[in-house]
Amino acid sequence: MSVFDQLVDQQQVTKVLKDAVLAASDTGNFGQQMTHAWLFTGPAGSGRSNAAIAFAAALVCPKGGCNKCAECLSAISGSHADVELIKTEGLSIKIDEVRDLISRASWAPSVANYRVVVIEDADRLTEAAANALLKVIEEPGARTVWLLCAPTLSDVLATIRSRCRHLGLRTPSIKAVAKLLIERDLISEDLAIFAAKASQGHIGVARYLATDKQVRDDRLTTLKIPLMITDISSAYKAAQLLVDTAKARAEADAEVRDNAEIEKLKQAWGSTGSKLAAGGAKAVKELEKEQKTRSTRLVRDYLDRALLDLATLYRDVMLVQSGVSESLINSDLKTEITKMAGSITESKTLLKIQMILKARTNLAHNAAPLLTIEALMCELRR
After folding, report:
1. Which listed site, 62, 132, 290, 365, has its alpha carbon 20 to 30 Å from 155?
2. What CATH number does the domain located at 3-168 have?
3. In this structure, what are the phi and psi dihedrals at residue 93, rounded to the nearest 5 degrees?
4. In what order do the strands lie in the sheet with 144-150?
């Protein structure tokens, strides 16, 4: 049993990390297998953050990542004294957060041989924050290891990635994801295969689809949107439906969590009825601001997922147009897909996929969600 067992279909990456852990056990003499800064890249769902966290756990574990001891379990849960796990639920990581992080990272390890810092969304560092991080990576501490995660190399400042050892993770195979769902989550074989295909190998989304019928229903509604677009009016209605669905899901996810966070903060500031200790009201306002930013990101994330689902629909249309219908992702909509394939040309299908991907890029650059989706739906109408 090892912390690396959770990495699905990443044998080469696992081998490199195990070799690095072995080299790191000789403190002060890393050799060629180990370095002070690593950059994990890979598409969404590849497990890049899981790989970084598993590596962090192995570095602070006396047995190199046994996945049983207190060190491993606390590192994975984010509560180990020598492991800093930075994940942002906002739109960016700002310089003040990085400065605080750098200060803590400079401390000597308290119980392990190293202090390990994991930044799950290094692609969300602002320019100022990235430059501040660059300085500390250029002059690393003897006992600090930095683990950065990002979708691609180009998402990270060139000067930072040049000082990190790069590990690229691949999208797990459909077979591997389905096998995980069957063995770990006890999902039926048919549902596991469907979820693995529909998620395109994204482990988290696959589990989400396999365990929540409402999520599957929402996905089916999204896939049927192109069928309801017949004119400009229906295009705008389709866009509103997609955005409203994303907002509803974001609000449902945030409601219980937000209320619990506010209540916990008020208790920490000595809440007695409607009164808070001095400074408490300001802290509550700051938290509410963070929650609003998180909600904004959630809406964008749900829209991005919906756009990916739409891209799979037109991908299936292209397959049918090419005379290949055995590998459809959305085989439950084969009749509708076949009808669409006969109503448009292959070049138009490709153009629609390109417009969907462009909309994803615009959303990632903080374009207004409704305007972006409205523009896309008008393009899909053609």
Report:
1. 290
2. 3.40.50.300
3. -110, 120
4. 83-86, 115-119, 144-150, 37-41, 165-168
Cα end-to-end distance, the chain, whole Å: 54
pTM of the model: 0.78
H helix count then E strand count, the chain: 16, 5
Write out 327-369 in H/E/C secondary structure: CCCCHHHHHHHHHHHHHCCHHHHHHHHHHHHHHHHHHHCCCCH
Instruction: List, for residues 58-93, the tens digit of each pLDDT value.
Output: 999 998 899 999 999 999 988 899 999 888 766 788
| Residue 252, C-beta contacts closer than 8 angstroms, at least 6 positions apart | none
One-letter-per-residue 3-state SS of 74-96: HHHHCCCCCEEEECCCCCCECHH
The CA distance from 251 to 285, in Å, is: 19
Report the run of H or E that residue 149 belongs to, with start and end.
strand 144-150
Contacts of 245 (CB under 8 A, 6+ apart): 218, 221, 222, 302, 306
Cβ atoms of 66 and 101 within 8 Å: the answer is no
- The per-residue pLDDT for range 81-131, each reduced to its tens digit, is 999 988 876 678 888 888 888 888 888 888 888 899 999 999 989 889 999
Closest CA to 62 of 106, 107, 111: 111
Residue 272's pLDDT band (boundaries 50, 70, 90)? low
Q: Tokens 């969304």, residue?
A: 121
Question: DSSP letter at 147?
Answer: E
Backbone phi and psi for residue 163, each to the nearest 5 degrees, phi listed first: -105, 10
**pLDDT interval class at 325 (50, 70, 90):** confident
User: What is the spatial distance between Cα 118 and Cα 60, in angstroms, rounded to a whole number?
Assistant: 13
Tokens of 373: 């989706």
- Sorted by where each begins, the domain ranges of the chain are 3-168, 174-211, 228-381
Short-list 319, 313, 307, 318, CA closest to 336: 313
Which single residue is written with the structure tokens 């295969």? 193
